[in-house]
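SEQUENCE-TO-STRUCTURE ENTRY
===========================

Subject: a protein chain together with a token-level encoding of how that chain folds.

Sequence line: the amino acid chain in single-letter code, read from start to end.

Question of interest: how does this chain fold, as expressed in backbone structure tokens?
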Amino acid sequence: MSIVTIRNVEFLNNPARFLDPYHFRVTFECIAPLPEDLEWRLIYVASPGNEELDQELDDCLVGPVPVGVNAFEFEGSAPNPSKIPPEDALGVAALILTGSYNEQEFVRVGYYQNTEYDNEEMKEALPEPIRFDRLVRDINQKPRVTRFQIKWDIVPPQPISAVAAGAANSAAVPSADDLDDDDEEGDDAEPPANGKSSS
């Protein structure tokens, strides 16, 4: 059983210009108090076949995390254009949000991001070099979620009654039902609250 479950990830500035920071809010539920911080990382993947080109845009420490539904806002820098191959700047890239506890990744939420020019003229006659200041991004709101089983070193409380279990289920954010789940090694897992940047 996972101690932390992501309920919703909401991008607060989507669509946006390519060079704008990413600003989003994460809502998650925690079923036991966590003595250590949760770490969240935002990664931009321009070339899926080459991990060396992945860019970690920012990370955030959240804690201490109380029992219940928590939320925090996270702002990550835009990708560094100089690290993106010209052939990968336009079209579809990936944006990944990861959650870890005690250096163990327990959830990975992936989004597709489409990047294009902000006017028809440049779309039809692509400038060289690429004009990153004229690019806009649009993040697909249908994420793919992968959960990992980790050692939480915490004993979750046992449900007191069916009424309590029903109350917990009703707390889920409706939009969380849209998440495309991908469990690895079984288990439900997901995100935090009270953020503080570690970078």
Remarks:
- The chain has two helices and twelve strands.
- Helices lie at 120-124, 162-170.
- Confidence is low (pLDDT under 50) at residues 162-179, 185-199.
- The two ends are 31 Å apart (CA to CA).
